[in-house]
Design goal:
The complex is a heterodimer.
Chain A (H helix, E strand, L loop, with lengths): L1 H29 L5 H21 L2 H19 L6 H22 L10 H17 L6 H6 L43 E8 L1 H5 L4 H9 L3 E7 L17 E7 L4 H7 L7 E7 L18 E3 L6 H9 L13 H7 L6 H12 L6 H25 L7 H27 E3 L1 H4 L2 H12 L3 E6 L4 E3 H5 L2 H15 L3 H6 L6 E10 L2 E8 L6 H10 L11 H6 L22 H10 L3 E7 L3 E9 L4 E9 L2 E6 L3 E5 L6 E3 L5 E5 L2 E7 H4 L13 E6 L5 E6 L1 E9 L13 E6 L5 E5 L1 H7 L10
Chain B lengths: L6 H7 L8 E9 L2 E6 L3 E6 L13 E7 L2 E7 H4 L12 E7 L2 E7 L1 E9 L3 E3 L12 E7 L2 E6 L1 H7 L11
Parallel strand pairs in B: 2-11, 5-7
Antiparallel strand pairs in B: 1-2, 1-8, 3-6, 4-5, 6-7, 9-10, 10-11
The chains are: A alpha+beta, B mainly beta.
Chain lengths: 742, 170
C-alpha cells in the first residue's frame, strides 16, 4: 500500500509538470505561435494524465481527459481549425483538467456536473471536427462494422454517445468498410507472429508491438484463432493466438525486425517481403479472418470516425516525432531558449529532495568560507620556492570552488515560468467575472531565480493581477469610448538586472485615480487633509495598509488587503516594490527581488565591540545626525527630523545592551530603515563597516529565536555575525509611533 | 538536519536502560570536579574559538559559533552551574553535543578520559540533594575512588533556557 501511495505521489508530481507543459503549449498557441510545434506536446501531456489517472481509477478525470484529448487530436490531425474560439475552449478545458487533478490529489469528491459546461463545448468541437473534413465518414457506417475477435481492448458500443473511459490504452483495430481492403500497390512485409507463453509471462503485449509496427506504415492485421481451445481447457497463461501482419511500408526490413527485438526469443517470427501486388489477402494459416488495413496517415475518414467514438483512438502518425525533429520545428525566436531548455530537461532529469540540495549548498558555503581563510593564511607565505606549487594549487582550488558554488546555486534556480504559468488562468477567470476583456502577455518566463523566491512570488503576483483587472483595466465600453482596443493587455515580464530579478506588471488600463486615492487616504487618516504630495507619493499610498479604493467591495479585490500585502510579501523576500502610473494610459508595478533568499545584501554595522548585519532591502538611508535634527520627543525618546518627517530612533546598544558603544549621538550613524506598515525607524549604530553579500543561516535551528535578530551569517574570517530583524528592533523599545506626518 | 543518531545517546545518558550492560562516557573537568557525558551524544571536541555574543541572552550562553556552516550556541558549563563565568584560555575545550534535534557546544576546562561503565557502577543521586549544579547531575559513577557526575544534557539545556520543545528536526 505504501508503495502504491508513492506511485500516486509520483503521478501527481508528473501531472503537475504535464499540466504545466500543456498550459505553456496552449498559451503559446494562443499567442499566435505555430500550432504544429505545440499541439503534439499538449496532446501527449493530456494523454499521459489520462493514462496515469486511469491506472489509479480517477474516473471523472479520465472521462474528461478523454474528451479533451479527442478534440486535441482532431486539432492535431488538422480536422479542427484551432481558431481563437477553439483555443478559448481548450484553455478552459485545461483549467478544468487542472482542477480535476487537484481534486483527485486531495481526494476531494468531484462535484456533480463539474466541468460539464466545458465538456459540452468540447463535445461541440468534436462534432465540428468530424463534420468539418470529409463528409463521407458518417458515424452510421461505424454501426455496420463487425468487430474482430482479436481486440484485447474492449471497444465501446459503436452507438454509444458517451465514450467510456478505458483503463488500458492499447491499440484498437480500426474497423473500416470491407471494400477498403483493396490495398494500394506498395512494397512491404508480411510478418507471421506466433507468441509463446513466455512472451506473455515476461509482460510483453502484442498490441504494443503492433502499434509500434503501425508507426512504420499501413498495417493490416489478421488473427488466427484456430488454436484457441474451449474455455474449460483454456490456460490463463497460455498463448493460443497467431497473427499475420501485412505492413505496407518502404522501410528497411531491419526496422520491422527491430520492433520484435525484445520478444524474438519468445515467439515464432517470420518477416518476409510482400509480393509487389498483395491483391486479395492470401489465406492466413487457418480459418481466414477478415483483414483490415489501418491507415497510418492521419485524416482518413475511418480514423476520424473511430477517433470520435472509440475512447482510445490514438492515431499514430507515420513517423513518430522524435525529440530532435520537434526541436527543429521550434522557431528560433525569443522563447526558443526556454523551449530548448524544456526539451533538454525532458531528456534527462532526476528528482532530488530539496533537503539534499540544501545540504550541498550549505557545504559549498562552508567551502567558500574555508577558502577565504586559506587565502588569508596564504597571504603571509612567500610565493616562490617550495610554496610556489602550493599557492598555484590553491589558486586552482579557489577557481574550482567558485565554479562549484555557481553550479550549486544553479541547481536551486527555477525559471519564474512555474509562477507565471498560473496567471493566465487567473486573468481568464477574472475577465469572465468582471465582464472585462483582458489578455495576458508574458515575457522572460525563462528567467531563473532561486526556488525559495519563486515559491513566494505567487501571492504577490496574484494580488497584483487581481488589482490590475479590477481597478486598472476598464470595461470594454469604457475602453472603446477612450479610444483603446476593446481588449485590455496585462503585460508581465521578468528579467535579471544587476544581480537581482525585476518583475514588472503593466496594464493599459485607466491608471491610478489620484484624486480618489487622495480622498480615500484622508478619509482613512493616512495623510493629513492638507498634505502636499507628489504624484509618486500619492501612487505609493495604494501600498499603505488598510487602503482600498474600490467603492463597492468586490470579491476580486477591494477587501482592503491587497497591495499592502504585496508590499509586505515583497519586503519579506528582501525586495522592493514601486508603482508608476499614467492616468488614462495604465500602471506599471515593478518588483525588485533578490535572486535567492540564501544570500542577501547586508550592511555591516558596529556597535561597541559587536558587529551586526542590516538587510539592505530594509535600509532607506544612512546619515550622521547633525545639529538640531535629533530632538527629544514628548515621551522621553529621541526622534529624528528627516525632511519634515518625524522618525523615532532606537539605539542598538540600548536594545541589545551592548557595552562600550558610543554615547554621543553626533559620533554615531543613524541607519533609517523601513519597518512593518511602511513607517520608518532610525537605528543608531557606531559605524558602518561596509556592504557585503551574506549567506543567510538559521539561528533558530540550534538555539531559538532571539528578539531583534532574524538570522545569522558567517563572515570571511569564520566568525558568526547576526542579522537584524528591523521590525523587532523597532518594537523592542517604545511602541513604534512613526507614522508619516506630512 | 543531521542529528538522527542521537536518541540512543539520550536515553543512555539518563541511565534508564538496564538492558545495556555497559556504556562509554567522556569525562571532563570543571575546576577540580569531574563530570561525564554519554559518548553517543558527543559529536566532536574542539578547541575554544571566539563566539559571537547573542544580545539579551542568559548569562551562561557565551554566544554562537560556526560549526562547518551550522550555527550553534556555546554554553559555559561553569556559569550554568550558577558559578562565575569561565575565564577562557586557548586551553579550554568545547564539547559539541547533540541533544534531540539540536547541536550545542559546552565549554569545559579540559577533557580527561573515556570511561566504560557497567550499569552497576551508576548510582542515582537522591532527589533531595539535587540543587544548583547537582540538578543537572542525576547519577554518579564511582571509579578509582573518584566520583564522576553524569550530566543530564536535557536538563542542562532546559535550565539554560534553550527551549527544546519547539524544535523539529529539519
Amino acid at each position: 500500500m505504501a508503495d502504491f501511495s508513492d506511485f500516486k505521489a509520483t503521478f501527481f508530481q508528473e501531472c503537475k509538470e504535464l499540466l504545466e507543459n500543456m498550459e505553456a503549449g496552449l498559451m503559446a498557441m494562443d499567442g499566435g505561435e505555430d500550432v504544429s510545434s505545440h499541439i503534439d506536446a499538449i496532446f501527449r501531456a493530456v494523454h499521459s494524465v489520462k493514462g496515469g489517472a486511469g491506472a489509479f481509477g480517477f474516473n471523472k478525470l479520465v472521462e474528461f481527459a478523454h474528451v479533451f484529448e479527442t478534440v486535441l487530436d482532431q486539432v492535431r490531425q488538422g480536422a479542427l481549425d484551432p481558431g481563437a474560439d477553439v483555443l478559448q475552449i481548450l484553455l478552459q478545458a485545461g483549467d478544468v483538467l487542472n482542477d480535476l487533478v487537484t481534486m483527485a490529489e486531495s481526494n476531494a469528491a468531484v462535484p456533480d456536473g463539474y466541468g460539464q459546461e466545458v465538456r459540452a463545448k468540447l463535445h461541440e468541437l468534436e462534432l465540428r471536427g468530424q463534420g468539418g473534413g470529409d463528409g463521407d465518414a458518417p458515424m452510421e457506417e461505424f454501426d455496420d462494422l463487425d468487430f474482430m475477435p482479436v481486440a484485447a481492448t474492449d471497444l465501446p458500443d459503436a452507438g454509444g454517445e458517451e465514450p467510456a473511459p478505458e483503463a488500458f490504452d492499447g491499440i484498437e483495430f480500426q474497423p473500416v468498410p470491407a471494400d477498403a481492403t483493396g490495398l494500394p500497390s506498395a512494397t512491404g512485409y508480411r510478418v507471421s507472429f506466433a507468441p509463446r507463453p513466455e512472451l506473455f509471462r515476461r509482460s510483453n503485449e502484442p498490441l504494443l508491438l503492433f502499434r509500434e509496427l503501425r508507426r512504420l506504415g499501413t498495417l493490416t492485421v489478421a488473427c488466427d484463432v484456430s488454436a484457441l481451445p474451449d474455455l474449460n481447457v483454456l490456460l490463463a497463461d497460455g498463448a493460443y493466438l497467431r497473427w499475420t501482419l501485412d505492413l505496407v511500408s518502404d522501410c528497411p526490413i531491419d526496422q520491422v525486425r527491430e520492433v520484435f527485438e525484445f520478444v524474438e526469443d519468445d515467439c515464432d517470427l517470420k518477416v518476409e517481403p510482400l509480393a509487389a501486388d498483395p491483391g486479395p489477402m492470401p489465406a492466413p494459416p487457418a480459418p481466414p479472418v477478415e483483414a483490415r488495413p489501418i491507415p497510418a496517415t492521419a485524416p482518413a475518414p475511418a480514423a476520424r470516425a473511430v477517433a470520435a467514438a472509440a475512447p482510445v483512438a490514438e492515431p499514430v502518425p507515420a513517423a513518430a516525432p522524435s525529440p530532435a525533429a520537434e526541436s527543429a520545428k521550434v522557431p528560433p525566436k525569443d522563447s526558443g531558449e526556454a523551449q530548448r531548455k524544456d526539451e533538454a530537461a525532458g531528456g534527462i532529469t532526476i528528482r532530488v529532495d530539496l533537503d539534499r540540495v540544501d545540504r550541498v549548498v550549505d557545504m559549498v558555503g562552508e567551502l567558500v568560507i574555508m577558502q577565504a581563510m586559506l587565502r588569508q593564511a596564504m597571504g603571509d607565505l612567500p610565493r616562490d620556492g617550495k610554496y610556489g606549487a602550493l599557492s598555484r594549487g590553491l589558486e586552482q582550488l579557489f577557481q574550482i570552488s567558485r565554479e562549484l558554488q555557481e553550479s550549486v546555486m544553479a541547481i536551486r534556480a527555477q525559471p519564474v515560468r512555474s509562477v507565471f504559468q498560473r496567471m493566465p488562468r487567473l486573468v481568464r477567470e477574472l475577465s469572465n467575472q468582471t465582464g472585462k476583456k483582458a489578455r495576458l502577455v508574458m515575457q522572460g518566463e525563462a528567467t531563473e531565480v532561486d526556488k525559495t523566491v519563486t515559491e513566494r512570488l505567487a501571492d504577490p503576483l496574484t494580488h497584483m493581477i487581481r488589482n490590475a483587472l479590477d481597478h486598472g483595466i476598464e470595461t470594454p465600453e469604457e475602453r472603446i469610448a477612450a479610444g483603446k482596443p476593446e481588449e485590455g493587455v496585462v503585460h508581465i515580464s521578468a528579467e535579471h538586472k544587476g544581480g537581482r530579478i525585476i518583475i514588472q506588471l503593466t496594464d493599459d488600463g485607466r491608471g491610478i485615480n489620484r484624486e480618489r486615492v487622495r480622498q480615500k487616504a484622508i478619509e482613512k487618516g493616512l495623510i493629513a487633509a492638507d498634505a502636499v504630495l507628489t504624484d509618486e507619493e500619492t501612487d505609493a499610498l495604494i501600498f499603505a495598509p488598510g487602503f482600498s479604493t474600490a467603492s463597492t467591495i468586490s470579491n476580486i479585490s477591494g477587501r482592503g488587503v491587497g497591495m499592502d500585502v504585496v508590499k509586505r510579501n515583497v519586503q519579506d523576500l528582501g525586495g522592493r516594490v514601486t508603482i508608476r502610473s499614467t492616468p488614462g494610459k495604465g500602471s506599471t508595478i515593478s518588483l525588485t527581488l533578490p535572486l535567492t533568499l540564501a544570500v542577501m545584501d547586508g550592511m555591516i554595522v558596529s556597535s561597541g565591540a559587536e558587529t551586526f548585519i542590516v538587510p539592505i532591502s530594509n535600509i532607506v538611508e544612512c546619515l550622521r545626525p547633525k545639529n538640531g535634527n535629533v530632538q527629544q520627543a514628548g515621551d522621553g525618546g529621541d526622534v529624528l527630523l528627516l525632511r519634515g518627517e518625524v522618525v523615532p530612533i532606537q539605539r542598538l546598544s540600548q536594545v541589545f545592551e551592548i557595552a562600550n558603544a558610543r554615547d554621543t549621538l553626533a559620533d554615531c550613524v543613524i541607519v533609517v530603515v523601513e519597518v512593518e506598515g511602511g513607517s520608518k525607524l532610525g537605528i543608531v549604530v557606531d559605524e558602518l563597516l561596509g556592504q557585503q553579500q551574506v549567506v543567510v543561516k538559521s539561528i533558530e535551528e540550534n538555539y531559538g529565536t532571539i528578539p531583534g535578530i532574524g538570522a545569522a551569517t558567517i563572515m570571511g574570517n569564520g566568525q558568526v555575525a547576526l542579522i537584524l530583524d528591523v521590525d523587532a528592533v523597532g518594537s523592542a523599545g517604545r511602541p513604534a509611533n512613526g507614522r508619516h506626518i506630512h | 538536519m543531521n542529528n538522527t543518531q542521537t536518541h540512543g545517546g539520550m536515553s543512555a545518558s539518563s541511565g534508564a536502560d538496564p538492558s545495556a550492560p555497559s556504556h562509554q562516557y567522556i569525562t571532563f573537568t570543571i575546576g577540580e570536579r569531574e563530570f561525564a557525558v554519554d559518548i553517543m551524544a558527543v559529536r566532536e571536541i574542539r578547541g575554544w574559538t571566539a563566539t559571537t555574543k547573542i544580545p539579551n541572552a542568559p548569562r551562561a550562553i557565551l554566544g554562537v559559533i560556526n560549526l562547518r556552516g551550522t550555527i550553534i550556541p556555546v554554553l559555559d558549563l561553569r556559569a550554568s552551574f550558577g558559578e562565575e563565568l569561565t575565564v577562557v584560555t586557548p586551553a579550554h575545550v568545547v564539547i559539541i553535543v547533540v541533544i534531540g534535534a539540536r547541536t550545542a557546544g559546552i565549554l569545559v576546562d579540559a577533557v580527561s578520559d573515556i570511561l566504560t561503565v557497567g550499569q552497576d557502577q551508576l548510582q542515582d543521586i537522591p532527589e533531595v540533594e539535587r540543587q544548583g549544579r547537582d540538578a543537572m547531575v542525576r547519577e554518579v559513577i564511582l571509579v578509582n575512588q573518584r566520583l564522576v557526575g553524569v550530566l543530564s544534557l536535557e536538563r542542562l539545556i532546559s535550565q539554560s533556557q534553550l527551549e527544546l520543545t519547539d524544535k523539529v528536526a529539519i
